[in-house]
Write a structure and sequence with these properties.
The chain is of the alpha/beta class. The chain has five helices and six strands. Bound molecules: guanosine-5'-triphosphate (GTP) and magnesium ion. GO terms for molecular function: GTP binding; GTPase activity.
Length: 172
């Protein structure tokens, strides 16, 4: 039987985009309307026995004053999830800047995923949407990222996101 491999995974993205909420949904099945802003970074682990992997997750702080810490968390990471908020064009700009930074300084083999979070806010009447799905998908395709829209609140595509990364990890 193959031994379970550890995989370092980092979440990056603008403050308030929902990084902690995605991690908390995935790891603990919880969601809080008043999730506290992360200070520095938070570390959580989650085994995925079906994929023979244990994720070691660094949930970074989006506040700009923590930007200089980010390399400590993405260095050596097997995968990164870059999160933006579909109701915030600014957060999408920030996400693209993270992709640039990772592609410039990160590991060339890093698996990268782009998550357009808070999809629950743009269901039906989508007047609050600021980032069109097709625009984000085109950007992701161009840069070799896996792309999905998620809702941490409604648990939409959250397991799928992490499982897709697990599938793409090189076999130990
Ligand atoms: P920092 O730690 O400051 O970088 O923020 P973060 O990216 O970790 O965001 P966080 O998970 O703290 O979420 C920010 C706010 O958005 C919180 O009030 C959450 O409840 C809310 N939120 C997160 N995900 C969703 C979602 O999918 N839908 C909705 N409607 N709200 C969400
Ligand atoms: Mg957070």
């Amino acid at each position: 039987l193959a031994q379970q491999q550890s995989a370092k995974l980092v979440l990056l993205g603008e403050m308030g985009s929902g990084k902690s909420s995605l991690v908390l949904r995935f790891v603990k099945g919880q969601f809080f309307d008043y999730q506290e802003s992360t200070i520095g970074a938070a570390f959580l682990t989650k085994p995925l026995p079906e994929y023979n992997v244990k994720f070691e997750i660094w949930d970074t702080a989006g506040q700009e004053r923590y930007h200089s810490l980010a390399p400590m968390y993405y260095r050596g990471a097997a995968a990164a999830i870059i999160v933006y908020d579909v109701t915030s064009a600014d957060s999408f700009v920030r996400a693209k800047n993270w992709v640039k930074e990772l592609q410039r300084t990160g590991n060339a083999n890093m698996i990268m995923a782009l998550a357009g979070n808070k999809a629950d806010l743009v269901k039906g009447d989508s007047s609050s949407r600021q980032v069109p799905t097709e625009e984000a998908r085109a950007y992701a395709d161009e840069h070799g990222l896996y792309f999905v829209e998620t809702s941490a609140k409604e648990a939409t595509n959250v397991d799928e996101l992490f499982e897709e990364i697990a599938k793409r990890l090189p076999k130990a």
